[in-house]
Amino acid sequence: MFDELHEECGVFAVYGHPEAANLAYLGLYALQHRGQESAGIASSDGRNTHLHRGMGHVADLFTPEVLGRLPGDHAIGHTRYSTAGDSGLLNAQPLSVTCNKGKIAVAHNGNITNAAELRRELEHDGSIFQTSSDTEVILHLVARSRERTLPGALREALLQLEGAFSLVFLAGDRILIARDPHGFRPLAFGQLEMSGGHVSSVFASETCAFDLIGAVYLGDVEPGEMVIVGPEGLTRERYAPKRDTAHCVFEHVYFARPDSIVFGRSVEESREIQGRKLARECPADADIVVPVPDSGVPAALGYSTESGIPYRNALIRNHYVGRTFIEPSQAIRDFGVKLKLNPVRHLLEGKRVILVDDSIVRGTTSRKLVRMVRSAGAREVHLRISCPPTISPCFYGVDTPSVGELIAANNSIEEIRRFVEADSLGYLSLPALRESVADHVEHKYCYACYTGNYPTELVNIDELMSSRERR
Ligand code: AMP
Fold it and tell me: Which of the residues are catalytic?
């Protein structure tokens, strides 16, 4: 049984560049928003694998001295967030092993929904697990495969997995990249040109990582596709039959950076359209539109443009809030939101405010925000959310709490409005969200957190649900 669901991560891989580890460092730096708890890089010079992992932010973990100890032309990297108590170094990635298929390091974004069953079977047959991460299951399946080659063993292993996985592997003088058949989590590929016309291949969760290293975005690793880059060049193959595509819409709502192209679409564009549609569906008679930074900014801009109500940055974010903040005495504790955001009284005093945020999960943050805006002098606070009510937990790699804690799973919109103490509350409709990601014709996205309709069979749904309760 896993005491931890593996989620909210960023992955990166580069093949054939003399500064592979440095590029991985920069790639992870750009992907830091996808996970701030631990990070790691594995590099290879073709024969030896070098690994450094640690708890904390990429910029703090990878000093020039550490990067100097990661030689080789090939590298993979990972940045990770987890919520469970067991979030220690042991589960930090990349995971690295030596087995009968050679030296393999792996980094994973997503969540394997049948990992608990696979692990039970493997343990029953004698496997000894080192971590509580679902990713380790893949390595055991690869090691136990009777296929002789790593690609063959990996193919066999991947076909046994259910759920969400965007995976990067480093194995000697090869990197192997794979994405689950539904394409839940993003995985982009690109090229980096070096002097002399030599080109190296790069892969990342989001294209903002390519921008930083000067790589060109060429497209996405397809759902159900495996890409191998080695001395013989780059090969792409479909390892799994085609399944219904189910891209995570929450990447466009909240998770990804707005300067990224995710699932072939600009995140900024999706969020602005969400805001425009929100203004049409949930208008309010107000003086200013205020975003909850940073994720609410593009939607608030869209709302303002569509409604003609002026946009104001009336909540200022402190960008230096770190994990290491030491809470002072009990009396002045519970800073919560205050530590991160401060209202601009000058802009709010006497105003009727439309406050735009991307989601209400438990409702506690939203209530603090509404109170904060009101106590800074706002006359009215109209809360607008740029997606539908979050009613179901995600089992595909986004951190959502159990059904019991999801306010919209248990309360009407009017009850939520009262809880968050807003004068009015409006959510974007599901059809409008679909249109904002241009999915109203094709149906290629997963909306399970808003509908409860999970695109894969979850045979162990009770177990998955109860793993949320324990957190
Ligand atoms: P609350 O009102 O306590 O439910 O918190 C809502 C806030 O949490 C919003 O400002 C969101 O931007 C943020 N949020 C939503 N989903 C997530 C997530 N999966 N991880 C971290 N923050 C989130």
Answer: 9
